[in-house]
Amino acid sequence: MARRGSYAKGVARREEILESALDVIGRKGYQNASLKQIAELVGVTPAALLHYFGSKEELFTEVLRKRDEHDGMMPQTLNPVDGKSAFIDVIRHNTEVPGVVELFSRLSVDAVDPAHPAHQYFLERSEKLRESITDSFVHDAAHRATLDPDTMARVIQAVADGLQLQWMIDRSVDMPGIIGALMDVLYPPTDQPETPTR
């Protein structure tokens, strides 16, 4: 019985660390969020922090998973209006947590290496996000896709990721507005004239 209680405490402590790290990174930014600051906020040493996660990269990968969980980033199939709205709401929320956006962008570059702790996270997240976008828009008689569903989802995802980089350099970039406009072009109402294709 003591072992089960010890396990539950460990899980609770791990969650506390993730919540604290997400808060520190969101407020102070990725570069300014040291293991020491996160550990102090939770009341442990940096070594104890690594006991739960193994490395800084693993901790930051789990922070991104926690962010996705909070944001409901992986919605189930929604109708197209709700799907578009939910996706844009997440992008709008990202403008309130620049440190998390920076963490996501930097870790996504590092995760190109298959040995990086975040590699699998980004593969799985990208696939789920594309499935979510596709499912949200593919069954709507009032609109028609100008591209095949997988290509459309990849374009939306690529533009969203690229806009985050532009926004980190220039905060006047209207990420939600641009993504909304792109979705309107890629998925216009059926009564609009067809976009010429080559």
UniProtKB/TrEMBL annotation:
Recorded hits in Gene3D superfamilies, A to Z, give: Tetracycline Repressor, domain 2 (1.10.357.10)
What keyword terms does UniProt attach to this protein?
Answer: DNA-binding, Transcription, Transcription regulation
Q: Which residues form the HTH tetR-type domain?
A: 11-71
Q: Name one Pfam family in it.
A: TetR_N
Cross-referenced PROSITE patterns: HTH_TETR_2
Tell me the DNA-binding residue spans: 34-53
Classification via SUPFAM superfamilies: Homeodomain-like, Tetracyclin repressor-like, C-terminal domain
Superkingdom of origin organism? Bacteria
Signal sequence residues = none
- Keyword Transcription applies: yes
Q: Has the keyword Amino-acid biosynthesis been applied to this entry?
A: no
According to UniProt, the name of this protein is AcrR family transcriptional regulator
From which organism does this entry originate?
A: Microbacterium foliorum
